[in-house]
Automatic annotation (TrEMBL):
Gene3D superfamilies per UniProt: 3.30.1130.10
Highest taxon, organism lineage: Bacteria
Species this protein is from: Helicobacter pullorum
Pfam family, one: FolB
One Gene Ontology molecular-function label: dihydroneopterin aldolase activity
Name under which the protein is recorded: Dihydroneopterin aldolase/epimerase domain-containing protein
GO biological process: folic acid-containing compound metabolic process
SMART domains: FolB
InterPro entries: FolB_dom, GTP-CH-I_C/QueF
Domain Dihydroneopterin aldolase/epimerase: 5-108
């Protein structure tokens, strides 16, 4: 049976960006994602705690562009979670501007 896990409003303070002030101070981001996986039997499932921990842990490293972070996930999600067949992942900079938020999204 196919399932979809929604991971929404994961808030983190990270170093991401190429502007000088972004390299000096952590900024708030929000991660939202949808992850489609197939479950063959009762003992098999995708532990969303592991998925959350993986996403949070990845931001222990510092990324330059949002694109770099998303490229990292495009490479690492299939390696770490082979049961995920499709996903959508959105990273939003919450405080980059006073009048709007900026987000990038990938889907595989």
């Amino acid at each position: 049976m196919w399932y979809k896990i929604f991971l929404e409003n994961l808030l983190l303070e990270v170093v991401i960006g190429i502007l000088p002030f972004e390299r000096e101070k952590r900024q708030k981001i929000r991660i939202d994602g949808e992850f489609v996986y197939f479950k063959n039997n009762e003992d098999e499932f995708l532990d969303y705690r592991d998925l959350r921990g993986f996403l949070s842990g990845a931001f222990m490293q510092e990324f330059g562009l949002l694109e770099e972070a998303l490229e990292f996930f495009a490479k690492e999600i299939p390696k770490n979670f082979p049961q995920i067949k499709k996903y959508r992942l959105k990273v939003t900079k919450l405080e980059i501007f006073g009048d709007c938020q900026v987000a990038l999204e990938i889907s595989q």
